[in-house]
Amino acid sequence: MRQMLGLGTAKRVISEVRSDLAAARDRDPAARTAGSIEILLGWAGVQALLAHRFAHALHEHEVPVLPNLIAYGSRAVTGVEIHPAAKIGGDFFIDHGSGVVIGETAEIGCCCTLYQGVTLGGTGFARGKRHPTLGEYVTVGSGAKLLGPIMVGAGAKIGANTVVIKDVPENSTVVGNPGRPVRVEGRKVSGPDSDWTHLSDPVADALQAMVERIVELEARLAEFDGKQRGVAIVRELRPGSGPSSAGG
């Protein structure tokens, strides 16, 4: 039996919208001097989330057709597609917004941040839980693809254009395709404005180690047979430099 929309649902949605506005003002430097009306009118990610709050409330009360119509209209206007059934916690922020897709069974904890082009998608045609679950304080960089019913632990950071198909441990940073946990040398990864430019590359690190090992083996072989061999050139693989690409 369908439950009627009540005052409690309305209060919850209003509270969620307020927290979303506060999240936008806190995490987007461009929004820190903007008023609430300006953010609602000019921030596509906030508009999409506002529409989803209402669509999700209607979906929870089994209202037919209307939730999907709201989601469809929101996608046409903002470029952000969020299924009405997706569960999203408070203090959520979508920066820039364009191209973000959040699937039906996706679950997002509180205080998470997604940048443009992020996909929380499914794999195959299986029913049931088929989209990612994000813990609290998760940040997902531009263009990242999280696929399947994976679990991303609280405090995790997903680098730009990373493809994640396996569970991500808490408080870790993942980059690459497929995504691999990495350590950010000399930098503490914290907050939604993580400096994605300076993430290390696990593939490059492995190649560097391989080249150094080959040079060592050639030197030892030259000592053994007395033949002089050419010296391989080993260039240091340095982290990227330049301004932060965290967005804003």
Describe this structure in words.
With 248 residues, this protein is an alpha/beta fold. The chain has a domain of 82 residues: serine acetyltransferase, domain 1, CATH 1.10.3130. Helix content is 33%, strand content 14%. The protein contains five helices and 15 strands. The strands form three sheets. It has a six-stranded mixed beta sheet. It has a five-stranded parallel beta sheet with strand order 1-4-7-10-13. It has a four-stranded parallel beta sheet with strand order 2-5-8-11, with no helix packed on it. Strand 14 and strand 15 form a beta hairpin. Helix 3 runs antiparallel to helix 4. The longest helix has 24 residues. The chain is elongated, with a radius of gyration of 23 Å. The two termini are 45 Å apart. About 2% of the residues have low confidence.
Key traits:
serine acetyltransferase, domain 1; 248 residues
Quick one: overall form?
elongated
Q: How many β strands by DSSP?
A: 15
Biggest sheet: strand arrangement: 3-6-9-12-14-15
CATH topology of the domain at 1-82: serine acetyltransferase, domain 1
Overall average residue pLDDT: 82
Percent of residues in β-strands: 5-15%
Q: Unreliable segments (pLDDT under 50, ≥5 consecutive)?
A: 184-189
Give the name of the CATH architecture of the domain at 1-82: Orthogonal Bundle
Separate helix tally = 5
Distance between the termini: 45 Å
Overall radius of gyration: 23 Å
Q: CATH H-level name of the domain at 1-82... which superfamily?
A: serine acetyltransferase, domain 1
Q: Give me the strand/helix succession.
A: HHHHEEEEEEEEEEEEEEEH
Major β-sheet annotation: 6 strands, mixed
Question: What is the name of the CATH class of the domain at 1-82?
Answer: Mainly Alpha
Structural class by SSE content: alpha/beta
In helices, the fraction of residues equals 25-40%
